[in-house]
Amino acid sequence: MIKAKKNKLGLWICSGGHASHFHESETACKCGCDYNDVDQETLDKIEIIRLRINKAIIVDSWCRCPEHNKNVGGAPSSGHLFGLATDFHCNKMQLSQLWLFCHELKSGFNGLGTYPEHNIPKIHADMILRFQRWTLRGGKYRYLF
Ligand SMILES: [Zn+2]
Question: Of the residues 12, 58, 81, 137, which has the maximum number of CB atoms within 10 A of its CB?
């Protein structure tokens, strides 16, 4: 991964050189450990979604240190450990709508799934090297491919 850089305001900078809509405070590990290595590709791809929907995206989880990842029940090899995964939602869009948008836009994420049963229903998108799509149907996670 290539770690993204941020500007003086703390906004992560896209590959194209412009500031993204995402601030360092939104992406840092939530345990307070300061781990905050945002992957450049992951940032570029979520910024494209942000621009296309033209609505605020709320980041629920991005970077996680191993301890925090464990505490929140993350997979042991989770992309969140490397800044390669982001969980997010949008208050102005249904989760299924946002998911379809990410999917049909061919956002370029390797992994894309939904967690509709969480307290705050969210999308998971990542750039780990396994290509997969999943969603919850009839109480079970279904992998589309
Ligand atoms: Zn942490």
Answer: 12
